[in-house]
Amino acid sequence: MDHLVKNLETAYSALISASTAVLEAKDASDIERTAKTDDALERFYNNLQLFHAACDQTQEFVEYLRLRIGSECLVDEATGPLTAKNGKSGQDGAENRVAIPSLSALRLEQMSKAVRWLVIELQQGAASATPRPEDNSGGLDIRPEDDTHQ
């Protein structure tokens, strides 16, 4: 992430320098179009494109993190927190992590929809919210693939 911030800062500084060069070139030529002003404008335009690219790259990274954090929060809501509480203090908790099988985006979306439907059914007071063992028609099995054979 530091490299993205540095790239964005560098692109911004170059853009400001290029805009200063354009203003100085325009001022030196008494607002007339010259080869020097055209060159300064070309450099400004190139730096503007580089700045846009750096902003886009940073935005993509922020969006990726937002989606990842949202997915992790959804998994935490469904399964509980990742760290086990064993009463030991002063440790960073890395060795206390419980392994959760990774979820694909499709599987996560299916689970999210299933949870939403269950919440809606519970809010409406539907008796069908609790699946019966003999009723296997149309129910969505939200267990991970590893648990389906049990």
TrEMBL record:
Renumbered residue ranges of the record's region Disordered: 126-150
A single Gene Ontology CC term: mediator complex
UniProt record, GO biological process: cold acclimation; leaf senescence; regulation of DNA-templated transcription; root development
Entry protein name: Mediator complex subunit 29
Originating species: Ceratodon purpureus
